[in-house]
Automatic annotation (TrEMBL), chains A, B, C, D:
It holds the Pfam family ADC. It comes from the Bacteria. This is Acetoacetate decarboxylase. GO terms for molecular function: lyase activity. The lineage of its organism: Bacteria, Bacillati, Actinomycetota, Actinomycetes, Kitasatosporales.
Amino acid sequence: MSTVRGYFHPKTATGSSSLIPAPPWQYSGDLLTVEYRTDPERVRELLPEPLELAEEDPGAVALIWADWQSCSASQEELLDPVRAQYKEAFVVVRCSYKGRTYSRCVYIWVDKDFAIARGLHQGYPKKLGSIHQTRPHPYGPAPRVAAGARFGATLAAADRRLAEATFTLREESDTNGFVNGHPMIHHRWLPSIEKGKGLALDELIETGGASFEAGPAWAADAELTLFDSPTEELSRLEIREPIGAYFRQVGVVWDGGRLLESGTSGAE
Amino acid sequence: MSTVRGYFHPKTATGSSSLIPAPPWQYSGDLLTVEYRTDPERVRELLPEPLELAEEDPGAVALIWADWQSCSASQEELLDPVRAQYKEAFVVVRCSYKGRTYSRCVYIWVDKDFAIARGLHQGYPKKLGSIHQTRPHPYGPAPRVAAGARFGATLAAADRRLAEATFTLREESDTNGFVNGHPMIHHRWLPSIEKGKGLALDELIETGGASFEAGPAWAADAELTLFDSPTEELSRLEIREPIGAYFRQVGVVWDGGRLLESGTSGAE
Amino acid sequence: MSTVRGYFHPKTATGSSSLIPAPPWQYSGDLLTVEYRTDPERVRELLPEPLELAEEDPGAVALIWADWQSCSASQEELLDPVRAQYKEAFVVVRCSYKGRTYSRCVYIWVDKDFAIARGLHQGYPKKLGSIHQTRPHPYGPAPRVAAGARFGATLAAADRRLAEATFTLREESDTNGFVNGHPMIHHRWLPSIEKGKGLALDELIETGGASFEAGPAWAADAELTLFDSPTEELSRLEIREPIGAYFRQVGVVWDGGRLLESGTSGAE
Amino acid sequence: MSTVRGYFHPKTATGSSSLIPAPPWQYSGDLLTVEYRTDPERVRELLPEPLELAEEDPGAVALIWADWQSCSASQEELLDPVRAQYKEAFVVVRCSYKGRTYSRCVYIWVDKDFAIARGLHQGYPKKLGSIHQTRPHPYGPAPRVAAGARFGATLAAADRRLAEATFTLREESDTNGFVNGHPMIHHRWLPSIEKGKGLALDELIETGGASFEAGPAWAADAELTLFDSPTEELSRLEIREPIGAYFRQVGVVWDGGRLLESGTSGAE
């Protein structure tokens, strides 16, 4: 009879097999964000009790591409970069909970297993996808971070393209958008192992960065296209009206969240 | 305020984005199994309370490669096979719980996200890996299912090879091995979102196939090699003595499990 | 000053790094074929001098999915199956050369580098793609090789789905189709390293299997859909009329071809 | 009877399916270089006639990781970055031809098909691999381009790790190394389609960048490890003595090369 260790599975005697280490988790990355308005009913239908539509601009949606290098406090993953680098594309809406406005990730695709595991912990509904975004570079044909610079971003899953966007940087901006600017409110759900017994885990949690640094945000003009897929509902968040688009380079630390309530989502 | 649906995340109004559908889940697959004895202490250290070493042959380990096609009750995934096909390699030991012998998967690698999600539900500690195994075929150089046929199997993760094996079929066998022959006893663990608060989910569950059909098992002679990796502890289950090796084609249905106890693992 | 060896690059002192070994090459695989008629002008425009449209049924096209295990004469690759297994989808038309009817592959996608290298040698215009097809299996939900069995097949490249098909087996068939039934006539082209100097290699070659064995062909009913892509012209071979569809398991040996003529294609 | 177009296969009526467009090809990228001395005989055995060992420091080897974004003159690939981004690791030695010193790539792995195709054209002996290298970033835990910054780089192929290195930047440097600093001298080889007839293409070519811009080179301290593999001979270039290590960001244009001689390599 033993004690097993490890922040995540597989737990072992040493803990060193854990798919993810304990927080804090550190991130360096580039973000490409496009914001638009959809039918607010399409947002509402993704918000389980007790979440409600945000009062202001309730149909606002952000689709964000991120190119990350991440690591634990030891930073050792950065020297074996297959364990540090990943890309993601995710969709954020806002909502209201007890009178406060939150951001909420409703769809997200990543390309590594450690990113899936972190998402399980943080309540991000992650799937695997194939994500690409143009990287800025100081030499050659790739764009500088400067007015007129052009970036592309694409998302696919299960061998189908789900979204693609192009961005043309316009000018430095006071903001990197407003949809993904609040604390995140997420559910952590897992069905009971017994059929018909509902959820074994049903938590409403709040989470956000423990620290943040960033370069200037850049406003951009963007073109976004969403594609249908039999296994995805991203295109159900149809584009009614563009809001804005942004590029920003950031450094983030994540170090845990807060349990808000448990067993109340009514999710089926 | 809405109800969201879906067996797994992301939950939506329709439920059709769920990474995995509700059980029953159906599988067709080929299994290559190699069994060996390791130091029983290496098994014991992977068994959290209240699990104990199996009384008989406590150091027995099975390393199993599986080449699967899986689907929900609708079987629609089989017609879009990127959603049905996956491969896995997994390590099973036995243990004792309340006087009964169980099988327990201590390490497992798969190559699709839907397989990771099922593992979360079933308590398999899944990571992504790159898994390959020779397939039988009735024509050309690939092996028939017959005496003398040779199969290879390999496992890699994070760009490192973790295990490789070759199998030579010898004769039909009454058994497909004994290590993976019991009901599975697994933990379902998720850390609390709040730091220092331990586990939010800590369940001991029992699970197994709801139905099973199979062709004859074949006994094989096998060579197995395990490799070290900074992120894995598979090679810590060092090979002391071979037991046996097997090939078998199976059809399986999984349809839920049973909660044994909760909050008792003492895992850190 | 040394002699370097190896059937293909990289050539070394031992020859053992070669991306592909010398022929003969042996293959075991499952083929799913769908044949249809397109506008013969769409076929003609893919046939450089001196090739001409086939006299009979000149607009016939075959789109074929293949799930292969391949190896050299030593068969050692089969025991390290990451080096043996690959999938491909390819498009075949017929043409006439010196009064004889040939098959010609006009588009092909594979998922391994050794398959790309073989294609360079054999004149197949290979790109990387993501290819999936349902496999027959004797147990569980996957199809048996029997009337009513359903198979799916999909093709994607550069994160876009290019084609998908479903097949329902109907009955055993005397034929596995007629479009891919002739010797292959291919070009082997490589531009001059010097700009504006045309082609350094411009060969018209004939190739085909050195030996062949197979199970019964099965006729099938099929649904095929082609999708547009900015980098592909598969959908330009638009579907005017279905011809037939087939499933067959085969064993093939390839062992070289024959040079027909050189420097005459007029390709730009 | 038609004319087909396209710089590379597949050639079509429009030319738009070509796996690679016509040069010039533009590149933005980050290079991590480690130089060491091996047994000069190991270099000599990789140099076919009429190439000879370089007179000075003939056992010098450079192993280079590169993280590229590349495009044609239209630069359209940069906006669909799955078509622009790739990574590579390659091994360069020097040699002498007609009294002049050249660089020569003896092994190279890339992760995209368009990069394989360019290599065929340029005489790089490309295989597919899995390549990772730490990227510099201005925020968060990833390294800045500055003294003390640490980078990792890894290479794997066929599910086996072949090489890994860590770099610690020391100071700006007048040089980015000397092994990869000459015009490239490469062979373009393709076997005859007819067995026993030798090579159909056997060209010795010279190639190099048409233009080049770069940031400062940084000297680094590096640790390099090479691993054995049954299909690779990288580790045969054993590390006898380190020379130096470097980081540099570059922009490059490639626009064709020059044929030196044909049919003289004596390669088997």
